[in-house]
Design a protein that fits this description.
globular, 412 residues, repressor, histone deacetylase, Arginase, Chain A, HDACs, alpha/beta, His_deacetylse_dom_sf, 8-stranded parallel sheet, EC 3.5.1.98
Length: 412
């Protein structure tokens, strides 16, 4: 065999968690109808699932989560109620108790949705923990764009979220084998959604007066903050090491109205320092896109491309040591969500699409008016994140990173 016929080595092996059933059931979600269809259709239309020399994107179908797996976090009463398809047309007091009202109404297919979305995120974890039975592939990155439901609580739905797939995923990664250094694996959860990751942060919160052992999970949510903005949480403030309830492993980085690429460029070194101090073995990135310009939330100026853009941030995180999971999340301009997660898929494959790429012709093509390109450009509102505030963020997170480093140096 001539040397010219030998394929170059695969640089990244990426597992893409998807199936027709997952796409169909996720497209029924009341807050994001048909979004899943748009996302997976655009990824396919850009032919990202086709084999190209030096890269590999493997489609991995999810399996429904078993009751025992859901019970790793959720209460049995909640599981039984949310999986009861017979109650879809009933009105009773339990609907209120379990949060199945207002922004989280019951819908036909809910039980399948809960089990498949949870199963998809658990499948993402499994692809990183064990070689694939389909060819023995060792995956570096897993993509689960239908996951990322970060508001679902232990015993009730909230914020368009019916199942805590993020929490279940983190708990699964915690159970990974010990590292070569002989310590338990560490998992960093980085949430880029416009809204604070209240349920995830609360579920994995480490009390300030912990025994001193470094916890296996660190959570960091970069989010919008304003009086009355959802969700309200005692954990959503800028970390204050002088506070009695401070924990360097349950972190929040609140941003103000109009956060733009320049703001994300300014705060990113703080994220990098926390990561370097904690030394995670696995990184889970919730890639909510409701902070992009053009989203109905209308709060940030964030763009898909450019220095400090969503793609720039995710690309930087993908350079970190360790295996990664990319999740979906919020995003209520569905064509823009499809643009963003298609672009992030190409970044995960280390072969980013040009942002001026024209949307290929397919059934959903008219929805991409008026630009008919992949890009989601920045907004024009004033960025109210002042240099004074961003300097405060830098100082606080420098203190946090130093505390993590000190704890790590003690070997605890």
């Amino acid at each position: 065999m001539s040397s010219s016929s030998v394929e170059p080595p695969i640089q990244r092996a990426v597992a893409y968690i998807v199936s027709q059933e997952l796409c169909k059931i996720s497209s029924l979600l009341p807050s994001n109808r048909q979004r899943s269809y748009l996302v997976h259709a655009l990824i396919n239309t850009f032919r990202l699932t086709s084999r190209v020399e030096g890269r590999l994107l493997k489609l991995v179908p999810p399996r429904p989560a078993a009751l025992k797996e859901l019970g790793a976090y959720h209460t049995r009463d909640y599981i039984d109620y949310v999986l009861d398809d017979g109650a879809v047309d009933e009105e009773d007091g339990d609907s209120s108790e379990f949060g199945l009202e207002d922004d989280c109404p019951r819908f036909r297919g809910l039980s399948s949705y809960v089990q498949l979305v949870a199963g998809a995120s658990l499948t993402a974890a499994q692809t990183l923990l064990k070689p694939s039975p389909l060819g023995g592939i060792h995956f570096d990155i897993a993509l689960c764009w239908d996951g990322g439901r970060h508001h679902a609580q232990k015993s009730h739905a909230a914020g368009f979220c019916y199942v805590a797939d993020c929490v279940l995923l983190l708990l699964a990664l915690k159970r990974a084998p010990v590292t070569q250094e002989g310590r338990k694996p560490r998992v960093m959860y980085l949430d880029l959604d416009l809204h604070f990751s209240d349920a995830v942060s609360q579920a994995l919160h480490t009390p300030a007066l912990h025994t001193g052992v470094i916890p296996q999970v660190l959570t960091l949510s970069i989010h919008h903050s304003a009086p009355g903005f959802f969700p309200l949480s005692s954990l959503s403030s800028l970390p204050d090491p002088s506070s009695s309830d401070f924990s360097p492993f349950s972190l929040s980085l609140p941003l103000k109205q109009g956060a733009s690429n320049s703001t994300f460029t300014r705060i990113w070194p703080s994220v990098e320092r926390v990561r370097a101090a904690y030394k995670p073995d696995y990184i889970v990135i919730q890639c909510g896109v409701d902070g992009l310009a053009g989203d109905p939330c209308g709060v940030w100026n964030w763009s898909l491309g450019g220095e400090g853009g969503l793609g720039w941030c995710v690309n930087h995180a993908l350079q970190w040591p360790g295996k990664k999971v990319l999740l979906g999340g919020g995003g209520y301009n569905s064509p823009n969500a499809a643009r963003a997660w298609t672009y992030l898929t190409s970044i995960a494959m280390d072969d980013p699409l040009p942002l001026d790429s024209e949307i290929p012709d397919h059934k959903a093509f008219p929805l991409y008016a008026h630009s008919f390109t992949l890009d989601v450009p920045a907004g024009t509102m004033q960025d109210t994140n002042t240099e004074s505030y961003l300097s405060q963020v830098e100082v606080r997170f420098g203190e946090v990173a130093a505390l993590i480093e000190a704890r790590d140096s003690l070997g605890t």
